[in-house]
Design brief:
The chain is an alpha/beta fold. The chain has helices at 38-45, 108-112, 131-140, 159-166, 182-204, and strands at 24-32, 54-56, 75-77, 81-86, 91-97, 117-122, 144-149, 174-177. It holds the Pfam family ATP_bind_1.
Length: 207
């Protein structure tokens, strides 16, 4: 059956259509531990209605998912979040938010395929939930920047202390952000683009 010929087919919404001026598209993954704000970031910055796979948390996660510090959380991403943002008339970023719980990490292989870089969201109340995430990125050789998500009442630390706690190289950008704020989210994505460009420039310099 040809659904496009069906009278029920309305076609894509105008805001979902890729701009005609777009000449380059980049895949970016948004990663971090459980409950650090990945779905919120994708939803805040996406220029299209984001695709989410959030499900209500059930008894299946009791004793498996660590809710310390985020006891009010009632939903969780079980596959991915997807959004899109145009950086300028030519460059479009496709955003893929990964599930935070380790039991869903088997989905990472597909989500990371073709990704140019990543944004790691960090919650300073629960930094330990991002240790393994950063380790997996480093193992895969995926360039990343770190966004320190500004949760209300979260402790503040000097960048030097955060780098030491996360065992991060000084070359990895670390930026304060608010996953609820579109401009803040856009800025961290721009920081990732600049970082990726700097790596490309270094790799092409004559030895």
């Amino acid at each position: 059956m040809d659904y496009r010929s069906s009278e029920n087919y309305a076609g894509p919404r105008s805001e979902d259509i890729l701009p005609a001026t777009a000449t380059a598209a980049v895949k970016v993954v948004i990663v971090g531990g459980f409950g650090v704000g990945k779905t919120t970031l994708v939803g805040a910055v996406s220029e299209i209605r984001p695709l989410t796979t959030e499900e209500t948390m059930t008894q299946a996660g009791v004793g498996v998912d660590d809710l310390a510090g985020i006891e009010q959380k009632t939903e969780t991403t079980v596959a991915m979040d997807f959004g899109r943002i145009s950086i300028n008339d030519q460059l479009v970023l496709y955003l893929f938010g990964t599930p935070g719980q380790e039991r869903f990490w088997f989905l990472w292989n597909g989500l990371f395929e073709g990704a140019l870089g990543a944004v790691v969201l960090l919650d300073t109340r629960r930094m330990e939930v991002s240790y393994d995430v950063i380790g997996r990125l480093e193992e895969r050789g995926v360039p990343f920047v770190v966004g320190v998500n500004a949760f209300p009442g979260a402790p503040r630390y000097p960048v030097s202390e955060l780098r030491a706690a996360m065992d991060l190289d000084d070359s990895v950008p670390m930026i304060d952000c608010d996953a609820r704020d579109r401009i803040s989210c856009r800025d961290i994505l721009m920081a990732l683009m600049r970082y990726l460009y700097s790596l490309t420039t270094v790799s092409t310099e004559p030895q």
